[in-house]
């Protein structure tokens, strides 16, 4: 059996980083080996050649981290190190990135370092019933208390030592508080409450929910918001909540988007020439329906053109640049056939006549045959563009190319509108008495573009002018009209409020006279009969000491006086933080 060479090995690597070196590759005569007197392989088993070694950039790499050092003391830190030796940076390679030292966060108050953050619960606040504690989805180092402990005031404690929150106050562990029909004790950071089975509790509204999405995207829809009578729920025969549990509003009153649709094609027009090559045109419009309320325009061609009557007129021959062919009514024939919005239609049957040689079309301007890139363009305003010319259209660049105006389709940046400076005040239209002068500004500096926001605020301002009295006309000060009758008492029992009003309209002010002085309304306390503690209508509650004046929305409004506003009298009042308005209780903001 004669011997056979095996495959060549890979080349040996260069051991030098620069200069020259011999590299080798090998093969063995063992595929198969010569046997039973067979001939050995013919040829060489080792092949060498010169290689030129160049510098190879080697970027640095970090070694493994060392052990943590002992803590440097109370409120101290521990450190571990690593080196840029695996491998070291060589021949211009990049060094290792920063962070030679690694030190955990300083964790005070008995906290320890967590590589991926402390899981819930982390603090006493996380134990509150109204709190939902969530673990982070990302691994971030942080400080935290040991398992079974939580943080309060920067110190790790047992959960049983956590304080509780009740309204705007804080309760110590084990401290009790009485809420409406409830006895509550502070335990492990939250209130553990038991209900009083004999207590009658009137219901109270929860906060309004968020508005629901609009039921329609256009043409008028409805959205709702809700509240429940569970804050608290009525208990043991207590009264339900007064008022509505649902509100609704109209929304999206704008019309719906309507995309445009093409009308039918018009009939073909008569050929505009009886000989020598003419055109017949038909059109359609984007009106079935037209686009509305931001709907899309029609896509496609508005015009269709077909060639007609290509034969030369009379005994004339074809123009010098044209040639006579058997099928002259084929597209394109003119440069205008390339225009956007125009579709050139081949006519049937073929008609002999004059046309430009293959690859050329007829120029509209000089009547000669030109290549497509030499065709002029016509825009929507009927203006001609020279071949290859460019113009700016808003934020897009348009170029005349092969008879078509081609524009880039860049998204224009949004530009919010800005006011111009105010104009000077206009001249006062009167020289005596009272006139009005105005000044203006415009939202054009710049105007809003590309769905930018419009300017906010008034476009015009007015002010009084020339308050000097006119000769022979005396200024007339304002005078109060008679007081109205007192309103009925605001409460059916206990102290309430009666109010009367007057208007500054029974005399002047005219010709620069002064406005009326004094309040527009007056309020007094009325006391029909003493209330029983259980007879307050929802949402009012009985109070042994209160001031009817201080509990009214009107007491906070200007131009109103309330007598005896500091009285302390028992009666039915709005709950703490609410004020009386139109027979119910509302926040000051409403």
TrEMBL record:
UniProt KW keywords: Disulfide bond, Repeat, Secreted, Signal
SUPFAM superfamilies linked: PMP inhibitors, Serine protease inhibitors, TSP-1 type 1 repeat
Pacifastin domain boundaries: 387-414
The keyword DNA-binding appears for this protein: no
Main location: secreted
InterPro entries assigned: Compl_asym_regulator, Pacifastin_dom, Pacifastin_dom_sf, Ser_inhib-like_sf, TIL_dom, TSP1_rpt, TSP1_rpt_sf
Taxonomic superkingdom: Eukaryota
Pfam families: Pacifastin_I, TIL, TSP_1
CDD domains: TIL
GO CC list: extracellular region
Domain annotation TIL: ranges: 107-162, 318-375, 536-589
Gene3D superfamilies for the chain: Laminin (2.10.25.10), Thrombospondin type-1 (TSP1) repeat (2.20.100.10)
MF terms (GO), sorted A to Z: peptidase inhibitor activity
Localization: Secreted
Protein name stated in the entry: SCO-spondin
């Amino acid at each position: 059996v004669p011997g056979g060479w095996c495959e060549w090995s890979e080349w040996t690597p260069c051991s030098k980083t620069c200069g020259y070196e011999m590299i080798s590759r090998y093969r063995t005569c063992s595929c198969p080996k010569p046997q039973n007197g067979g001939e050995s392989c013919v040829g060489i088993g080792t092949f060498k050649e010169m290689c030129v070694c160049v510098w190879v950039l080697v970027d640095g790499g970090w070694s493994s981290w060392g052990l943590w050092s002992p803590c440097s003391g109370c409120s101290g830190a521990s450190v571990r190190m690593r080196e840029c030796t695996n491998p070291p940076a060589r021949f211009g390679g990049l060094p290792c990135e920063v962070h030679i030292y690694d030190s955990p966060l300083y964790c005070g108050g008995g906290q320890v370092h967590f590589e991926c953050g402390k899981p819930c619960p982390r603090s006493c606040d996380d134990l509150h019933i109204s709190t939902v504690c969530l673990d982070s989805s990302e691994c971030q180092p942080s400080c935290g208390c040991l398992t079974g402990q939580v943080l309060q005031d920067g110190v790790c404690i047992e959960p049983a030592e956590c304080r509780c929150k009740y309204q705007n106050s804080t309760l110590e562990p084990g401290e009790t508080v009485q809420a409406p029909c409830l006895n509550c004790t502070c335990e492990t950071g939250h209130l553990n409450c038991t209900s009083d089975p004999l207590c009658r509790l009137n219901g109270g509204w929860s906060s309004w929910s968020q508005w629901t999405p609009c039921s329609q995207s256009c043409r008028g829809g409805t959205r709702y918001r809700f509240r429940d009578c569970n804050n608290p729920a009525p208990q043991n025969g207590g009264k339900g909540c007064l008022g509505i549990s649902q509100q609704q509003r109209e929304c999206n009153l704008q019309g719906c988007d309507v995309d445009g649709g093409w009308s039918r094609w018009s009939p073909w027009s008569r050929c505009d020439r009886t000989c020598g090559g003419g055109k017949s045109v038909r059109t359609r419009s984007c009106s079935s329906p037209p686009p509305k309320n931001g709907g899309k325009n029609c896509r496609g061609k508005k015009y269709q053109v077909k060639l007609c009557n290509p034969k030369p007129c009379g005994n004339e021959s074809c123009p010098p640049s044209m040639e006579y062919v058997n099928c002259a009514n084929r597209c394109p024939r003119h440069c205008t056939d390339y225009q956007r919005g125009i579709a050139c239609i081949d006519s049937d049957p073929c008609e002999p006549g004059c046309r430009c040689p293959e690859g050329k079309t007829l120029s509209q301007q000089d009547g000669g045959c030109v290549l497509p890139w030499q065709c002029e363009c016509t825009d929507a305003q009927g203006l001609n563009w020279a071949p290859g010319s460019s113009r700016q259209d808003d934020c897009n660049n348009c170029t005349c190319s092969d008879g078509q105006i081609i524009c880039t389709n860049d998204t224009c940046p949004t530009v919010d509108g800005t006011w111009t400076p105010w104009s000077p005040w206009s001249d006062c239209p009167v020289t005596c008495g009272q006139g009005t002068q105005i000044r203006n500004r415009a939202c054009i500096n710049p105007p809003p573009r590309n769905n930018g926001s419009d300017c906010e605020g008034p476009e015009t301002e007015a002010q009084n002018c020339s308050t000097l009295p006119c000769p022979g006309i005396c200024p007339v000060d304002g005078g109060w009209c008679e007081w109205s009758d007192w309103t009925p008492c605001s409460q059916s029992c206990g102290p309430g409020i009666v109010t009367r009003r007057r208007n500054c309209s029974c005399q002047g002010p005219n010709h620069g006279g002064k406005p009326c002085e004094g309040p527009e309304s007056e309020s007094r306390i009325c006391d029909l009969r003493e209330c029983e503690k259980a007879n307050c209508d929802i949402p009012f509650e009985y109070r042994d000491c209160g001031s009817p004046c201080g509990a009214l929305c009107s007491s906070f409004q200007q131009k109103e006086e309330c007598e005896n506003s500091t009285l302390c009298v028992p009666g039915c009042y709005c709950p703490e933080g609410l004020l009386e308005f139109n027979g119910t209780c509302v926040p000051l903001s409403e």
